[in-house]
Design a protein that fits this description.
246 residues; alpha+beta; 6-stranded antiparallel sheet; two-stranded antiparallel sheet; 7 helices
């Protein structure tokens, strides 16, 4: 019991030091500050990472606080969105016969929370649940950029994925202005060659932007006119099944 309490105390000391640090911190620096040997520090950090309290800065060994409470709240909200939108995605697929999606903003990208594809096609869209895609090169991302009051496109890296990807800020701004006017966005092979998609904003009953709803499929099957036709269906269903914030 004594050893467990000692280990817990050390772990809390390490966590407190990471939380109070104004910038990322290395394991070596923590060892020096707290006078803990490297092997013990390694075990403590591994435990804190596995439990979701801290994380490494991408591609480094620098450590930062992971906001476990915020992450749990975020996960709960995402689960609620998936649950409430399941019938909506089923209805979108039923009316379009194309793979339907719901996505949300996540750290300067979109994350695909759920999708429905009940078709019998041999070539089907891959399972994208949990995957991230760029904001500027996807229909869902552009919808979120267009209808969000908080996102700043000047901070985005407009990477080119295909010859159709919008990589100029002014052109993207014009595209977003049009999207907000017409209520939907189209990805015309801007992220992947051979794929097209259309998306609309998904709001709560109180008017909060929750994410984006969309459908996608092979460009050979979905021309721009068909996507425009689908946008009418998506807008109607999004208005019919608004998210019920709790």
């Amino acid at each position: 019991m004594v050893n467990r309490n000692k280990s817990l105390t050390r772990g809390l000391q390490v966590l407190k030091e990471i939380m109070n640090s104004e910038q990322s911190i290395s394991a070596n620096a923590l060892c020096l500050k707290l006078e803990i040997d490297k092997s013990t520090m390694s075990r403590l950090i591994t435990t804190l990472i596995n439990e979701g309290f801290v994380k490494y800065v991408e591609n480094t060994k620098e450590i930062i606080y992971a906001d476990v409470v915020g992450n749990l709240s975020k996960r709960k909200r995402e689960e609620m969105i998936v649950k409430q939108s399941q019938n909506l995605l089923n209805e979108i697929f039923s009316q379009t016969n194309e793979c339907s999606y719901i996505s949300v903003y996540d750290e300067d990208m979109i994350m695909h929370l759920n999708q429905v594809d009940n078709s019998n096609r041999i070539l089907k869209n891959r399972d994208s649940i949990g995957f991230h895609s760029p904001l500027h090169a996807t229909a869902m991302g552009k919808v979120i950029l267009a209808f969000s009051d908080e996102l700043d496109i000047s901070k985005l890296t407009l990477e080119e994925y295909t010859h159709s990807t919008i990589t100029h800020p002014k052109r993207l701004q014009l595209d977003l202005h049009t999207i907000k006017e017409i209520g939907y966005a189209i990805d015309d092979e801007e992220y992947e060659y051979g794929l097209r998609s259309v998306a609309v904003p998904y709001f709560s009953k109180s008017g909060e932007l929750i994410g984006a709803l969309g459908v996608s499929g092979l460009a050979a099957r979905l021309d721009v006119e068909k996507l425009q036709e689908f946008s009418t269906i998506l807008i109607a269903l999004a208005n019919k099944h608004k998210f019920n914030s709790i």
